[in-house]
Design a protein that fits this description.
Strand content: 15-25%
Distance between the termini: 28 Å
Shape: globular
Amino acid sequence: MAVYIDPPTWPGHGRLWSHLISDVSFEELHAFARRLGVPERAFERDHYDIPSHRYADVVRAGAVEVSSREVVRLLTAAGLRRPKGRPAQGPQPQDPQPRNS
């Protein structure tokens, strides 16, 4: 299992955010996020947005701390990078499936 998180330096909605990614698969990423109770709405294209107050919890749960630049490198090397505004190439990874509550 390899999930990574960058420092909470991305501003938005009055707080700072980190990006949580996997370098293996979206399935691995979604499973990790579910275990931590991260809402599915926090998933955006190829990462989960994690608010700064959850950063330490995510690291304690096993996410590896890396730089923001390393997040992009890892996603690209794994073929999981889905940048905003660029058409997807090849088969697309599965996004989270809605839960039946």
